[in-house]
Hints:
Helix content is about 35%, strand content about 25%. The chain is an alpha+beta fold. It has a single domain (about 5-130), classed as Beta-Lactamase. It has a five-stranded antiparallel sheet with strand order 2-1-5-4-3, sandwiched between helices.
Amino acid sequence: MGFKQLLQRIMDSDVNIRHSVITDAEGNIIAVNHRLGVINYLTEEETSASLKRAASAWKARKQLSPKIGKGLYAVAAFEKITRITFPLGDNNLIFVSMGSDTTRMDLHEGGQKQIIQHVLNILSGDPTKE
């Protein structure tokens, strides 16, 4: 499955996902999917800088993996959004942005835990988990 199709599956898994991005290990953007009608809080330059910082933090976590195991995901929560980072193989990352409770589009859809589980299931490659 290509990156664009993967991002579309992730976006389709929950209406509260605002934005999804795949980067390389350095945080350089490879593919983007953005929910129609959702306005970004950050400029393109701010988003790029934020992704580079998050990728750097992921590299630091990866150095600890021999002792604590492979990282599954990391969550950064802000007042307006929550960003969840997932490894995609050894060389890429997926960033998924969802609205915080006060900015969510549909409070009856999944929350942070459900979105994390949906994405982990999609990334597992096991269609019986989706």
